[in-house]
Please model this.
Amino acid sequence: MTSPNVGPASFNQSNALDGITAASSTDIWAFGSYSLANGSGNQKTLLMHFDGNAWSIAPSPNPTEGGFPDDILFAGAALAPDNVWIVGSELEDTNGVGFATLAIHSTTATGAGSN
Model:
């Protein structure tokens, strides 16, 4: 089954999925990150949702601005269709040090809610 990708806007851009969690056969989440097209190796979050028919890219936070963006989603748990958690990390400082926790909590089966 095919899934959507961010880009590629260049040869350098790639998508990586680090995990998957499911509340049901029609509420499946895959998560990871994608590399920026500029070849820097910097990453932004990638969150996808499967509704039983097709995968779609879901909104996900990318709090790191400028500097060295390195926002990654790497674990998740679907406790129920209205209680899905996806977690990861964000690079808090633009000098390449200082990671912080990044969390997404969905209260609906159709998309990521708050972070």
Summary: The longest strand covers residues 15-24. The chain has one domain: 15-106. The two ends are 29 Å apart (CA to CA). Confidence is low (pLDDT under 50) at residues 109-115.
